[in-house]
Amino acid sequence: MRRLYAAEAYDATRSPDSHWLATAPPLAAECRPLEDPVRCDVAVIGGGFTGLSAAHRLAQTHRRAVRLFEAGPIAWGASGRNGGFCCLGGSKLGHEAIARRVGGEEARRFADAQRAAIDHVAAFLDRVGVDADRHSRGELVLAHKPSRLSALRAEAAHLESQFGVEAEVMDRAALEAVGVSGPEFHAGLHIPFGFALNPLTYARALAAACAQAGVVLHPHSPVTDWRMDGGRHRLRVNGLPVVADRVVLAANGYGSEDMPEWMAGRTLPALSRILVTRPLTAAERAAQGWTSALMAQDSRRLLHYFRLLPDGRFLFGGRGGLAAGEAAAGRSHSRLRADFDRMFPGWAHVETERSWSGFVCLSASLAPFIGALPDRPGAWTALAYHGNGVAMGSWSGARVADLAAGVEGAEAAIPQLMRGPLKRFPASRMRLAALRAAYVAYGVADRFL
Ligand SMILES: Cc1cc2nc3c(=O)[nH]c(=O)nc-3n(C[C@H](O)[C@H](O)[C@H](O)COP(=O)(O)OP(=O)(O)OC[C@H]3O[C@@H](n4cnc5c(N)ncnc54)[C@H](O)[C@@H]3O)c2cc1C
């Protein structure tokens, strides 16, 4: 399979050194690699939030016989290794750009979908009685420069007009009063939506619910070939044939350029990296002035995201560089750690316990996509949440399941912004070079504007 980065980034026999793998309860479901040829109503390719949510809805609500194939262990991709921010988002477009593209009414529908996506995750966890270490009432955006205060005010006004809520803009003193301080935090905006969780615990709860609903889960079962024959989909998994009436492709940033061919040049995976410190003592938290349980991000275009975990460790994430591989990983970790030391100087002596990275997925339109694969009748995909797929990926999985089940009105239920088309990147062979150029430009803007 053709992919954009070095092969080791897709080697599903190797697991990331993630805090979630060290702390999430084991998967409470029977599952094993595919060992025999099978036939099913729907084959789902990919075992992250999108694939698991789609499989769950197809089996539970639409009563389909579903097989889910995941190249690695369940949630091996981004879903098992992200920051656990279950929050608004999904597109990299600003509010005005969205309204220009699809009009005011559709912009509101996209906003509604973002909120619905958060509620979708919360309702699922409540229903199955899994807490997943949830914390943080809403999210903070922190101005990394005094000049960003006006952007926070504009965002607050937008939140009020779209959601009818008052989002509080906080000055330094107000931030300090809630246990948030650092040399680069000049003001903040509290967005009263979303929460943080242990993403792998959530993904495993979804997988357990899938199994309970009758989905047959096949970890360590990469789909290596996909052809059409007589209107049916013929997949090859672990060397064995799988015949399916329909397929949901849920590979997101871990997908290939040629399965199917139509996908070539239509996604841009980008690395994001996370480090987690050892547990901080109460005295260390007080010394830095950060005692808040609120999840936060800064106002940079190349943003950092961070939060105090319920066990006292600190999670800090950001851009993960442009290359996969050991040496590149070392460099990207050093860069991230340098950012952490600068933003949290009171913790410069605190050791990093774990550091890992994974792929987020971008599209040329900078918006998520849910829809049909034109060269594969009876196949659909949902992808490109632009680093915000905990909520949006889960919700999109349910929407793509409705499409695959042929539910009337399923397409209309998807906001226009997310209905595509999923265009090819211009000069798609130069995607990584374009990303490099964008990083340089954004870095300059973050520093000087
Ligand atoms: C470091 C990092 C931090 C992030 N932080 C956040 C955050 O805090 N909040 C947030 O909302 N989002 C965050 N994201 C983004 C979020 O994790 C993703 O948007 C979301 O997990 C996407 O889910 P998915 O199921 O579509 O894709 P993935 O979880 O990537 O799953 C795709 C799966 O498909 C499998 N696959 C691919 N090809 C095949 C094949 N041929 N056969 C079988 N299986 C295959 C892969 O192994 C992979 O497991 C982050 C991402 C990263 C990498």
Summarize the structure.
The protein is of the alpha/beta class and about 450 residues long.
Tell me what you see in this structure.
It is a single chain. Strands 1, 2, 8, 9, 10, 11, 17 and 18 form an 8-stranded mixed sheet that branches. The protein has an 8-stranded mixed sheet with strand order 5-6-4-13-14-15-12-16, with helices on both faces. A two-stranded antiparallel ribbon has the order 3-7. It folds into 2 domains: 11-82 and 200-268 and 364-440, FAD/NAD(P)-binding domain (3-Layer(bba) Sandwich); 134-196 and 270-362, D-Amino Acid Oxidase, Chain A, domain 2 (2-Layer Sandwich). It has 449 residues and is of the alpha/beta class. It contains 11 helices and 18 strands. Strand 1 (38-45), helix 2 (49-60) and strand 2 (66-69) form a beta-alpha-beta unit. The chain has helices at residues 19-23, 49-60, 95-102, 104-128, 149-163, 172-177, 199-213, 282-288, 326-343, 389-404, 431-448, and strands spanning 38-45, 66-69, 85-86, 139-143, 168-171, 187-191, 195-196, 216-218, 223-229, 232-237, 240-249, 268-277, 295-298, 305-308, 314-319, 352-362, 369-372, 379-383. The structure holds flavin-adenine dinucleotide (FAD). The site of flavin-adenine dinucleotide has 45 residues, from helix 2, strand 12, strand 16 and helix 10.
